[in-house]
Amino acid sequence: MWLFVMITVVAGYLLGNLNGAVLVSHLMGDDVRSHGSGNAGLTNFIRNYGAGRALTVILVDAEKAIAACVIGGLLLKPSLGFQAGSALGGAAVILGHVCPVFLGFKGGKGILSGLFVALMTDWRVAVIILAVFAIAYFSTQYVSLGSVLAAAAFALSFVILHFNRPVVMLCGVFTGALAIWMHRPNVIRLLNGQERKTNLFKKDKA
Question: Distance between CA atoms of 17 and 169, rounded to whole angstroms?
Answer without folding.
Answer: 24
